[in-house]
């Protein structure tokens, strides 16, 4: 009993801990693995994750664990919540330790660094075809989820039984509403592209533009995301849900979003390094902008907001010039799908 769990979470940062708190609060024994033994020691001693979610108590059913083998042996349900740039690395570490009946779900939002591949492709390459896979995506700030504030999220995967079991584990009538979705690609893509658009919204607000500009960025960001999604085989309707419109509105409008705060700092004149340092946690959109931009170019998909965010982050363009360029684009029809 001591070393068994209903689910194991890999990644003891803000979101991994928030999801583990949520699962344990639902009455499920939840093991939370982190790669830094000292950090895990602190979780055990403090009964909270002071580094990432200060002041929020860890439920008794949440068991911090520093040994990856122990964590993976404890349960067949494995929820990966590490940043996208170490997603492949962590899966490679996990692979020899997985159980035969392991099932893998991730809440990581992003694409593989450099290649821009979806995380499902990384998972398949590392783990082969035998393990059921799933993804969680949607508008969920870790702090609110951990505090038990009402939240809704979407889930999709390769195996209907796994998806159903995950809904059972995560769903809570009081705190967390979980929507099953059948668009595995769309949910992954929504979580990656919204990071880029949130940086764009932050840039716009940082420059001093107002609600009109922010809302236009959200709306046209949704159009870009949908275009890219359709080119990759996702369903357009997915992007009107939690993982599209939902996450865009959340991260483009609220300063809990690190991507938005990163954009804000740049719009106010900080350089990339200083802005990242100021935030001190993962800013997925920084890397993801390059990957989404490259992916869009490869597929011939027009993504003007992503293109301008890319120019600011990687080509030294000033945020004001990027905004001017977006505004001075040729006239378009809003209703034509090609525009
Ligand atoms: N926070 C949020 O509100 C939400 C986050 N997400 C997504 O969840 C993912 C994780 O983000 P989040 O928890 O917020 O990030 P944080 O920056 O809060 O935490 C990241 C955690 O990952 C750990 N980590 C880094 N490298 C490794 C590694 N090689 N092996 C194991 N662990 C590692 C970090 O450890 P260390 O501190 O030692 O580097 C840290 O504990 C991201 O893809 C993010 O987009 C999705 C929805 C909401
Ligand atoms: O994904 C998130 C909310 O859904 C968290 O957003 P940030 O990574 O921008 O903080």
Automatic annotation (TrEMBL):
The active site is at residue 194. Residues 7-162 form the Glycerol-3-phosphate dehydrogenase NAD-dependent N-terminal domain. It holds the Pfam family NAD_Gly3P_dh_C. Gene3D superfamilies: N-(1-d-carboxylethyl)-l-norvaline Dehydrogenase, domain 2, NAD(P)-binding Rossmann-like Domain. GO terms for molecular function: glycerol-3-phosphate dehydrogenase [NAD(P)+] activity. It catalyses: sn-glycerol 3-phosphate + NADP(+) = dihydroxyacetone phosphate + NADPH + H(+); sn-glycerol 3-phosphate + NAD(+) = dihydroxyacetone phosphate + NADH + H(+). The keyword Secreted does not apply. Sn-glycerol 3-phosphate binds at residues 109, 138, 140, 194, 247, 257-259. Keywords: Cytoplasm, Lipid biosynthesis, Lipid metabolism, NAD, NADP, Nucleotide-binding, Oxidoreductase, Phospholipid biosynthesis, Phospholipid metabolism. It is an enzyme of class 1 (oxidoreductase). The keyword NADP applies. Its EC number is 1.1.1.94. Residues 183-322 form the Glycerol-3-phosphate dehydrogenase NAD-dependent C-terminal domain. Signal peptide: none annotated. It is found in: Cytoplasm. Catalyzes the reduction of the glycolytic intermediate dihydroxyacetone phosphate (DHAP) to sn-glycerol 3-phosphate (G3P), the key precursor for phospholipid synthesis. Belongs to the NAD-dependent glycerol-3-phosphate dehydrogenase family. This is Glycerol-3-phosphate dehydrogenase [NAD(P)+].
């Amino acid at each position: 009993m001591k070393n068994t769990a209903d689910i194991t979470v890999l990644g003891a940062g803000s979101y991994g801990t928030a999801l583990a708190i949520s699962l344990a609060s639902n009455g499920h024994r939840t093991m939370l693995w982190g790669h830094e033994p000292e950090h895990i020691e602190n979780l055990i001693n403090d009964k909270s994750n002071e580094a990432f979610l200060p002041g929020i108590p860890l439920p008794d059913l949440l068991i911090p664990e520093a040994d990856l083998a122990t964590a993976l042996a404890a349960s067949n349900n494995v929820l990966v919540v590490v940043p996208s740039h170490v997603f492949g690395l962590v899966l490679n570490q996990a692979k020899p330790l997985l159980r035969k009946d392991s099932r893998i779900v991730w809440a990581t939002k992003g694409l593989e660094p450099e290649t821009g591949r979806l995380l499902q492709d990384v998972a398949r390459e590392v783990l082969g075809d035998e393990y059921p896979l799933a993804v969680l995506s949607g508008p969920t700030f870790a702090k609110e989820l951990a505090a038990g504030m009402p939240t809704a999220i979407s889930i999709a995967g390769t195996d209907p039984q796994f998806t159903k079991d995950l809904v059972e584990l995560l769903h809570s009538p009081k705190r967390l509403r979980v929507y099953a979705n059948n668009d595995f690609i769309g949910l992954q893509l929504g979580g990656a592209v919204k990071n880029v658009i949130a940086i764009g919204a932050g840039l716009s607000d940082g420059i001093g533009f107002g609600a009109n500009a922010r809302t236009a960025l959200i709306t046209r960001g949704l159009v870009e995301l949908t275009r890219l999604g359709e080119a990759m085989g996702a369903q357009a309707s997915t992007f009107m849900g939690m993982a599209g419109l939902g996450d865009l509105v959340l991260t483009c409008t609220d300063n809990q979003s690190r991507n938005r705060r990163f954009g804000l700092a740049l719009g106010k004149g900080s350089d990339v390094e200083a802005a990242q340092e100021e935030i001190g946690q993962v800013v997925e959109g920084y890397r993801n902008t390059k990957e989404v931009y490259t992916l869009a170019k490869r597929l011939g998909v027009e993504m003007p907001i992503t293109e301008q965010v890319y120019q600011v982050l990687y080509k030294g363009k000033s945020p004001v010039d990027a905004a001017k360029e977006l505004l001075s684009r040729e006239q378009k029809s809003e209703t034509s799908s090609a525009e």
